[in-house]
Amino acid sequence: MTATPDLGTRSPQLASPDLLRSVFRRHAAGVAVITARGDAGPVGFTATSLTSVSAEPPLLSFGISLGASSWPAISETEHIGVHLLGDHQQELAATFARSGADRFGSPTAWSEGPEGVPVLDDVLAWLVCRIVGRVPAGDHRIVLAEVVLGDPSGPGSPLLYHQGRFNGLRD
């Protein structure tokens, strides 16, 4: 028989989108920016759902909403860029998270990288990946991508997202 947890004065909530968002606000996550070349120019978005999936072959995954402005490009492209942001890049993370922002305009520094993927400057690390799958998951897609090449040698410490804010890592 399973023991019932002592909830004290707390009362559990039924499953809902608000419950899930509230719980995951308490989960600190690394911050990444995913980029791709779209028909009308580069696209990108901030992601906290980046996950290492496999070392052999090197695979990663991330989630993207079907309503995201970047989804049409991500749904059709073969290659994406994955950028791990440093704690000095809070404004860059906010720019790529903000709806309607000119994400690739000044002051964003970037260049066209391998496979035509937009590569952001001064990040902790970046990868160019080939998309190998797009898995339906509610109102999102889980994108699986195989690493093609990258650079893990950028400056700084990781940027984290917690309680609705971007923060640096503290000891």
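(the above was protein one; protein two follows)
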Amino acid sequence: MTTTEWITDIVLVLVVFRQLREGRLDRKTFLIPLGIVAFVAYSYLDSVPTAGNDLVLIAALTAVGAALGVAGGVYTRIRALDGHLMIKAGAVSAILWVLGMGARMGFQVWVEHGGGADDVARFSVAHHITSDQAWVTAFVMMAVTEVVTRVATIYLRSRARAGAVSPAVPVLDGTA
């Protein structure tokens, strides 16, 4: 893994750890993680392989990312306090986030340094996965989808929470 990959992965983990402490739900809550995954997608998604079962692999890991993201968003507490919405990632949300990030990081380290390259190559041949780019795309899409669905779930829940509490509670707090 390159230094940039380590930094990106660590920053994405820290985004949720930052939310273990309750804070205002504001634009940064959404823009920081979305900005990070936009950078990751721009950096690593050169093409989307479509030969063999590449799309099956990509769809499967994208679905895993969506499930982790929705669950992480559901297990994030949102409450109104003094006219603002507050957010706090619960233990389940943090565990799911670290599980998703850790699985991707662990797979990459295993393939690059743990002797997993031969196993992945055999699996790829047996399951008609045609290139390394299919794996890259699948894991990047898993990460992007996990972040986007988590943020979207939190946003939708915050809209519902704000409307149920008071129309005066802003969904996106621009004052923080």
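Reviewer note on protein two: Residues 132-165 form the longest helix (34 residues).
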